[in-house]
Amino acid sequence: MKLTVMTSDEQFITLDVDPDESVENLKALLEVETRVPLQHQQLLIDGNVMLNSKKLTALGIKDGDLISMHKHVPASPPSNDLSLNPDGSAVNPGAFQQQLRQDSNLMTQLLQNDPELAQAVLGSDLNTLQQLLRERHQQRSELRRKQEEEMALLDADPFDVEAQRKIEAAIRQKGIDENWAAALEHNPEAFARVVMLYVDMEVNGVPLKAFVDSGAQSTIISKSCAERCGLLRLLDERYKGVAHGVGQSEILGRIHVAPIKIGNVFYHCSFVVLDSPNMEFLFGLDMLRKHQCIIDLKDNVLRVGGGEVSVPFLQEKDIPSRFLDEERYSKNDAASASEASGTREKNISSVPAGGQSSGVARSGSTQGPDYEAKVTKLVELGFERGAVIEALRLFNGNEEMAASYLFGG
């Protein structure tokens, strides 16, 4: 039968079709004639839309009927809200978050297997969610890469030197990973930040937060702190010099005695004064020994005077943030200003105003005008230079007693 089709631009097209043809096939014929894609066509008969699945006879269409065709561009299908970018982040993070929230089973699995990501999904910060998605994608990529490398090693020639080296590295890394996993399970606190030991003290009536460090031989105060405590007027500049150690700091001198208050008790304390803006006050081993202090980590207190006074170590929230950032500087300054035993070797020179040497951390100086001559003479007897210097230091530069000590050793 013949049908006449009127297009949207009022053109008439005559087609010869079978009465049992489907509407979809009729649209296919019209696509050839009009160049309008099948999915963009909408056919109407007597104002009613003709469905693709219907046959022409079922719609009551007869020979010579007029059919109208309109261009109909369907709305684009909704984008996949769960799709991801190549870096693992969500294309539409807001919709992605909503989709996950609505899936109760998936959220239950996330809370069990990845609580951090689950909290990001339940939170309101999309940037954090995107960052975690990128991290998880990177972790999965790294895992796949390692698995591929392991498979490649299985297929490699076992007698190849390079393959053996890679297998050895893989076995070693596996041991490290297992050790790390065991530490996470049995020793998780090892991965946490260790807060250094601080206590509340008063120096000359001024409240301070003192850094307790048994690894520093001398008690140290900075110039600015000494000035704030009203002690700079007592500075003995005869003991100024340069401290060499892990770092290097200028020694401005010593304050020989000043009152400090720990708990409710006053004690006498001496200080090395450093020109160091990176630390304030460090309570070192010299005063810890003098006042018979006990660092009690079980009860988290510093006991002074053999236990007559106990002051608690400060919690992290009670320590100013600048102190936490400056701990590494304090350690360097402490190492520079103190002479420690064992592997921590220091070289501290302090030059008094009169020009003669006077040790800051040493009990007595052996470096006189003929000091080097004594060292050379004893070294010529067959002793090591370090042992000679130590012997002269022990006997305050007495060459004969140092020699007897060396021969007796």
UniProtKB/TrEMBL annotation:
InterPro entries according to UniProt: Ddi1/2_HDD, DDI1_N, Peptidase_aspartic_DDI1-type, Peptidase_aspartic_dom_sf, UBA, UBA-like_sf, Ubiquitin-like_dom, Ubiquitin-like_domsf
Region ranges (Disordered): 334-369
Any GO BP: protein transport
Domain UBA: 368-409
Recorded GO CC terms: cytoplasm
Any coiled-coil regions, as ranges: none
Protein name: DNA damage-inducible protein 1
The organism of origin for this protein: Aquilegia coerulea
